[in-house]
Amino acid sequence: MAGSGFAADRTTPRGLLQTADRALLVLLGFDRSRSDWGVTEVAEQFGWDKSVAQRILATLAHRGFLLADPDTRRYRIGPAALHLGRIWERSNSLAVLVRPVLAELSGQSGVTALLSVPDAFHMRCVEAVDGPAGPLRYYPLVGELYPAHAGATSQAYYAFVPEAERLRLFRSRPMARFTDRTITDLDALEERFRAVRRQGYAYTVGEYDAHVATVAVPVHLNGEPYGSLSLGGHEDRFPGPLDRLPRLQHAAEMVERVLTGRR
């Protein structure tokens, strides 16, 4: 089963509720390649009796976490999962989880480390930790929206979005110029995205903020782009990306492990 690393160990530790744990294993078993389950499939996948699988699926459907199709008798993710997803987005839990990784990264690199996720036609900073060199800005970075076309923080994410989806986002949409280095031509931006995909990172100087250099790498979850991890500082203290790149790539791997339950 692909799914999340949180489901890698199917045994229920002593002292925990086995029935609740089994229900969560079923939910964690959904992914892009497995959008629905039947009772027999669940029983075979987890080695349970069909009666156990049926009761677990029916209970999850009763609480809205699964949706039962009366025609096919198969189960899909239900609307309660959407409710939890929205609560997760607003809970600040993501910032709490990644803060130790960013703190270590900023301490090692000497500059500001930040994690950003897509938000409409922008990247939104969800957590940032300043390094010994001092703050990148004199106001909080958390909540800052970075335009999708300008700067490494955005380019490191959008370069890895599927081409058709990316073109739908950018085509016929005006791109503001923030400095004389901002790319505002779609063909030139696509060329930049190709370069980012080839090298695995984005590096810009002064494309969004004048005199600010940024190196960023994508954060993937289960093979799909989720956000970007960036290091930013004044261009005088940041002559190029290569010295800090290995630490940044390692930190991105750590974020991915934290968010997928992989060890």
UniProtKB/TrEMBL annotation:
One GO process term, biological-process aspect: negative regulation of DNA-templated transcription
Domain named IclR-ED is located at 80-261
Keyword line: DNA-binding, Transcription, Transcription regulation
| Segments passing through the bilayer | none
Pfam families for the chain: HTH_IclR, IclR_C
The record ties this protein, via InterPro entries, to: GAF-like_dom_sf (IPR029016), HTH_MetabolicPath_Reg (IPR050707), Tscrpt_reg_IclR_C (IPR014757), Tscrpt_reg_IclR_N (IPR005471), WH-like_DNA-bd_sf (IPR036388), WH_DNA-bd_sf (IPR036390)
Return the PROSITE patterns for the record.
HTH_ICLR, ICLR_ED
What residues does the HTH iclR-type domain cover?
Answer: 17-79
* Gene Ontology molecular function, alphabetical: DNA binding; DNA-binding transcription factor activity
Instruction: Give the highest taxon in the source lineage.
Output: Bacteria
Looking up PANTHER family in the UniProt record yields: HELIX-TURN-HELIX TRANSCRIPTIONAL REGULATOR, ICLR FAMILY, HTH-TYPE TRANSCRIPTIONAL REPRESSOR ALLR
Official protein name in the record:
IclR family transcriptional regulator
Instruction: Provide the species name.
Output: Actinomadura harenae
Question: Lineage of the native species?
Answer: Bacteria, Bacillati, Actinomycetota, Actinomycetes, Streptosporangiales
